[in-house]
Design brief:
Layout: E1 2-6, H1 13-24, E2 28-30, H2 31-41, H3 44-55, H4 61-72, E3 81-84, H5 90-102, E4 109-114, H6 117-131, H7 138-161, E5 165-169, H8 174-185
Parallel strand pairs: 1-3, 1-4, 2-3, 4-5
Helix pairs in contact: 1-8, 2-3, 4-5
The protein binds BIS(adenosine)-5'-pentaphosphate.
Length: 192
Amino acid sequence: MRLVLLGAPGSGKGTQAARLKEHLQVPHISTGDLLRAEVAAGSKLGLEAKEVMARGELVSDAILLGMLEDRVSRADTANGFILDGYPRNLTQADALDALLKRIGQPMDYAVQLDVPTELLVERIAGRAAAEGRADDNPESVRKRLEVYNTQTAPVIEFYRQHGQLTVVDGVGALDEVFNRVVSALAPTADVG
Ligand code: AP5
């Protein structure tokens, strides 16, 4: 199964993807995690991305597409994947669509985790206190939410128009949200 998780910063994409990965037995591909690994490794790409990420802006489409093509072409994606953090704008949505058509593996589901802004801010503040992620400071969070509303929200419409979108209430205990996502996938959840 090929699934993309959509939602604002703090909506629970990473949290739910980690659980869905076990349930569906397909890899979790987080472009944020891939970028943070490059930053931690001090690679050329990581050095380019570091400041952009800290400001809460989007890293260039060219870098992201190269990274995604590389990751999706690995053998462990043969039965699908859970994509988290990509696509982030319509250019990326078109590029992903073209990539999946080229490899003959169309997206099965786009699931949007819907969470009100006040709760997003509260969750990210909680993570900032617990983990100190570089872009979880109030100024970057404001920017990330603005980028989401202006650049990423149209991607939701893109999947709606393609008939692939399911909106899931992302408010509640982790298990409750997980069960809602699994129910949304139910008709084909056991198909590879
Ligand atoms: P990325 O890592 O993708 O960050 P994000 O989209 O801002 O998402 P978050 O990790 O903040 O939120 P999430 O929805 O995954 O929620 P989570 O499960 O962590 O991207 C970071 C940066 O990388 C971008 O700003 C950009 O610069 C760059 N980047 C990445 N992809 C890119 C792309 N495609 N193009 C260009 N640039 C790109 O949960 C958040 C918190 O809430 C956690 O503490 C969690 O424990 C808690 N929580 C989750 N669910 C619940 C719940 N149900 N109840 C209570 N708490 C909960």
